[in-house]
Design brief:
It contains five helices and six strands. The chain has helices spanning 4-23, 26-30, 42-45, 58-69, 145-148, and strands spanning 33-40, 55-56, 73-87, 90-103, 110-124, 127-142. Strands 2-1-6-5-4-3 form a six-stranded mixed beta sheet. It is globular.
Length: 149
């Protein structure tokens, strides 16, 4: 059975991802990714007809997502049901993430999503970072304009 510390650090990578977005904290958000990371939101976005690009590379991911939200969208993310498998210096995580997006400063336009996250991670020193994130949507309500504009 993998070390409990590894399991906590693996889930913490997704917590850093979520809270980094919510706080618009560039350093915290970036700390969740490997340099060669990929974020694939296309499966989730396809549910409402959007087709965002595959995001590749930590800096591009951080720049794109924070530019999309900062000053435009208030977000809150809740991570639940994490399941972890570890194989040496790689790991796999699945979790449910509920994401609330509200247009700033008037929250009349909003979207609430329940997404399934499928995440591949790698060990990076004493912590774990996400290398590939695939996000699929279980359900959503509201107006997707609150996410993509």
């Amino acid at each position: 059975m993998p070390d409990l510390h590894d399991r906590l650090e693996i889930v913490d990578a997704l917590y850093r991802f979520a809270l980094g977005q919510d706080l618009k904290d560039r350093e915290l958000f970036a700390s969740s990714f490997a340099a060669d990371a990929e974020v694939d939101f296309r499966p989730a976005a396809a549910r409402w007809g959007a087709s965002p690009p595959l995001l590749t590379g930590r800096d591009a991911i951080v720049d794109t997502i924070l530019a999309l939200f900062t000053g435009r969208v208030d977000t809150t993310h809740q991570v639940t049901n994490p399941r972890v498998t570890v194989d040496g210096d790689t790991a796999h995580l699945t979790a449910l993430v509920e994401a609330q997006h509200l247009l700033s400063p008037h929250h009349r336009t909003h979207a609430l999503l329940k997404n399934r996250y499928d995440v591949d991670l790698v060990r990076d020193g004493d912590r774990w970072v996400m290398r590939r994130v695939v996000i699929e949507n279980a359900w959503f309500t509201g107006d997707p304009v609150a996410i993509f504009g």
